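Final report, Chapter 2: Outcomes

The project's central promise was a pipeline that accepts a single protein chain and returns its three-dimensional structure in a standardized token representation, suitable for archiving and comparison. That pipeline is now operational. To close this chapter, we reproduce one record exactly as it appears in the project archive, with the input sequence first and the structure output second.
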Amino acid sequence: MIKKMTLSLVMGLSVMLGMTHAQAPEKNSDMLNFLLGELAVQRNDLEAAAGYLEKITNNQKIPYVLRQQFNLAYGQADYVKALSFLEQILEGEPNNIEVLLFESIIYARLNSYDKAADVMNKIAGLYQKEANDNGFHFLYRELKGQIDRKAFLDIYQKIAKINNYSAEVTPLLASLLVDNGYYGDAIHYLNDVILKDQNNAVNYSLLMYAYSLLNEPEKGLAILKSAAEKSAIAEVKVEYLQALITEFYFEDALTYANQLLQEYPNDSHIYGHLALLNFALGNNDLAKEYVEKVIQLKGHYVNVIFGLADFARTTGRFSDLYEILPNINVIDVQVVRLIAEADMALRKKSYATFLAIFDELRTKFPDRTEYLYNQQLDMLEKSYDYQLLLPYAEILDVVTNYELFVYTYYKSLAYQEMKQYDKMQELMLSWIQRNPEDALALNGYGYVMLELAKTPQDHQYAMTYLKKAIALAPDEPAIMDSIGWGYFQEKNYVEARKYLWPAFNRLKQPDVIAHYIALLIEEQKLKEAKSLFDRLKIVYPDHIETTKLMKRYQGILK
């Protein structure tokens, strides 16, 4: 919605500038000043451009010219001057939503939060009336990335207060509180708004997320379960089903989903969850039936298929997915089918077929080139074929102008597994030298060195990088897991819990779950460890992390 304000074609301005008939422009005419201003903009002589346009505005207030003056001031971060031009535009267009959006951004950047809140509240009302939609959602979508995160939260708190913490605005305030780490406050507001609107499933979803971030997922589950039992709304019950899946209770989720199916036999969301659950638990034929049912009911089958693909990628079961996917003429579905076919070829070591399929995909879908390279790299990593992984990681690194750490990581991983440790370190340290505050890069290097450490000095060297990473990104679960695992290896289980527990609650990946199970065992919380391991083993029976846990604690995890 927010676009740069620009002038229309010069020819369209003649009437506004008073040129009602063809005539040679005089030295100081508005048309001449406008043309000279445009030329100055093209030469990037912004000071001269502003001067020419100012001469026009002195004679008459032309909205297009004011917009161009605004562009110049805004682009130079002269927010006071930019605001003055917006105010002049708003004199003739008081309900122009795009202009008001810019006004609210400028007030925020000038730290005038009360004024920003008043303008945003006006926008919400105008948009709701114009589009018959939640205007507060519109604000959230349009402005979240335009205004400093903390400032946006302060302003939204004012907006929520203006509207007496209504059910329309409060969930968005709660979302911003979560973004800023105020999980308890978010839960307080969500509980209040749920009392006002007990059938809004989105509120329960956000509540569950906040409880997980607060490391109290069981409280969230209990609230969602109670809400699902009381509600007659399918979406609320499905939200509890999703929470069971997110918290890794796959068998309980399957039982509950089958019960819901009896009550709501035509709900495509339930069939979508059943497709994932049955695929995860190895019931591929049933999973296929449920995917077909989602399509029949005109549900969001593309989302379902991508959910299956994500799970298949994590578990290394992409080839199992091929028979489940419908052969329908939808680009995204066809892409996933062909990727699954490529994975089958790779597992059979049919490298020519594997490469040919991806070449065909990139030819047919050039707009998905980077995505396809990413899938190819991920498959090669999981197949342990590092001789192929290295050149493809290099290709994508070149294609993206060496701007993304992930491809440096893939290359480093290949060197590591081929025991070319010097090259691995050289690559990673070179990236870190260029990007010293890249928390994920520091984490990647620190974790690799942690795994390679042979001596206490090696371990402390790795931890140095992980401590830098966690200082830069204290809420990033992957980094929490890495440094927590480092403390675990030191047998410092108190510090390990500070990081592994929240990492587990935020990132239900096999390695993170395995690290937390190991901690539970060392803390002698064997009942909890065995229960969690049983859930891990059901969903990831052949995963390397499951195997490593079985081997390490074979006397405990029977």
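Archive annotation: Residues 3-27 have pLDDT under 50 and may be disordered.
This record, like all others produced under the grant, will remain available to the consortium after the project formally closes.
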